[in-house]
């Protein structure tokens, strides 16, 4: 799940949301919301989150991890659907949103309307994202590098050796929002990542429910449609008109630029197994010092590192926090040129974030 930086970046304890969930609603960290609805929330236990999937694989021959990921990725091109989905976490929080999705050839258009929290409407046309904040009368423009708003789970970039770090096991069939679904368990082969239980609509392959699991099988976070209509009358032209209706709004463009870790003076002295560097961004505005975000992914899970000059007035004590499956770890880094405030944020075990921060250093 791709985490993108939003806000001033001064306090990793602040919330986001992919998604906006944007994937993703992700109130656990700093994120430039590349558009979407990110949500963290939850129920009290795996049972409360609906984790009762059968343990024995049944049905057709087992698919490999690669075959499952291809199926789930291709399902994002379902012609149209609309529905209500809920994101919940084991902490007891819960958020919901309404989504409209249409695919016209190579063009995907989505609208996500937050039903909880601050009023927010997010539109995405391929990688162009507009987030309307009616109370502030502001529209935020950004770019999204994820393949869709729901689910925010599948990052599925090219070249990730995902099958080296996860094993797939089919758990049978179930029903979600009135639709029959195949259930697959993607289990991690090491301690650096969480597992995922995924419900895929039987005919289209559309992901209609996901659960993020810790090593003991406890459900940390769940996202699921509570109501869904496939083949819904969603009109792309109408969504495009809504995206263009900015009268009375202040239009604000995200202030971030692509950069490289080398150019910013950062490196990892040791790699974290399975996690490949993806992108690096630099943000600078009048309210905060320049902030760098370095993104890593293993094809499913994503980790973001945030680095900025240390400011005693803005930065809290070092520590860690978690909301659902998202952990945040912060610390102060000493360097000959000065002090830095660094944060690691991701939907991974805390030990993974610790490994990233232990490996992060300034270039000689």
UniProtKB/TrEMBL annotation:
Pfam families per the UniProt record, alphabetical: MucB_RseB, MucB_RseB_C
Presence of the UniProt keyword Signal in the record: yes
Keywords for the protein's UniProt record, in alphabetical order: Periplasm, Signal
MucB/RseB N-terminal domain boundaries: 65-243
Lineage: Bacteria, Pseudomonadati, Pseudomonadota, Betaproteobacteria, Burkholderiales
A GO CC term attached to the entry: outer membrane-bounded periplasmic space
Entry keyword Signal: yes
Protein name: MucB/RseB C-terminal domain-containing protein
Entry's family note: Belongs to the RseB family.
Subcellular location: Periplasm
Boundaries of every MucB/RseB C-terminal domain copy: 262-360
Single GO MF annotation: antisigma factor binding
GO BP annotations, alphabetical order: regulation of polysaccharide biosynthetic process
């Amino acid at each position: 799940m791709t985490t993108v930086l939003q806000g001033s970046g001064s306090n990793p304890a602040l919330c986001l949301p992919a998604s906006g969930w944007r994937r993703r609603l992700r109130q656990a960290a700093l994120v430039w919301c590349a558009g979407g609805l990110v949500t963290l929330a939850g129920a009290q236990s795996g049972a409360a989150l609906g984790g009762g999937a059968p343990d024995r694989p049944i049905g057709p021959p087992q698919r490999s991890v690669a075959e499952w990921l291809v199926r789930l990725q291709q399902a994002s091109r379902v012609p149209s659907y609309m529905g209500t989905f809920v994101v919940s976490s084991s902490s007891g929080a819960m958020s919901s949103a309404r989504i409209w999705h249409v695919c016209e050839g190579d063009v995907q258009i989505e609208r996500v309307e937050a039903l909880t929290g601050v009023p927010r409407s997010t539109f995405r046309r391929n990688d162009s994202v507009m987030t309307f904040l009616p109370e502030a009368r502001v529209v935020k423009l950004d770019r999204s590098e994820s393949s869709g708003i729901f689910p925010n789970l599948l990052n599925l970039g090219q070249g990730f050796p995902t099958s080296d770090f996860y094993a797939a096991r089919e758990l049978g069939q179930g029903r979600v929002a009135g639709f029959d679904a195949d259930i697959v368990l993607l289990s991690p082969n090491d301690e650096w990542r969480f597992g995922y239980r995924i419900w895929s609509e039987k005919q289209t392959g559309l992901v209609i429910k996901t659960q993020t699991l810790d090593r003991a099988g406890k459900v940390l976070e769940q996202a699921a449609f509570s109501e869904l209509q496939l083949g819904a009358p969603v009109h792309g032209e109408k969504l495009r008109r809504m995206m263009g209706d900015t009268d009375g709004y202040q239009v604000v463009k995200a202030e971030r630029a692509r950069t490289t870790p080398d150019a910013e003076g950062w490196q990892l002295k040791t790699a974290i197994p399975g996690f490949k560097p993806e992108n690096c961004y630099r943000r600078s505005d009048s309210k905060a010092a320049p902030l760098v975000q370095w993104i890593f992914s293993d094809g499913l899970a994503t980790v973001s590192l945030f680095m900025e000059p240390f400011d005693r007035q803005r930065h809290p004590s070092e520590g860690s926090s978690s909301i659902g499956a998202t952990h945040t770890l912060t610390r102060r880094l000493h360097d000959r040129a000065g002090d830095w405030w660094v944060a690691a944020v991701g939907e991974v075990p805390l030990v993974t974030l610790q490994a990233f921060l232990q490996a992060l250093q300034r270039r000689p």
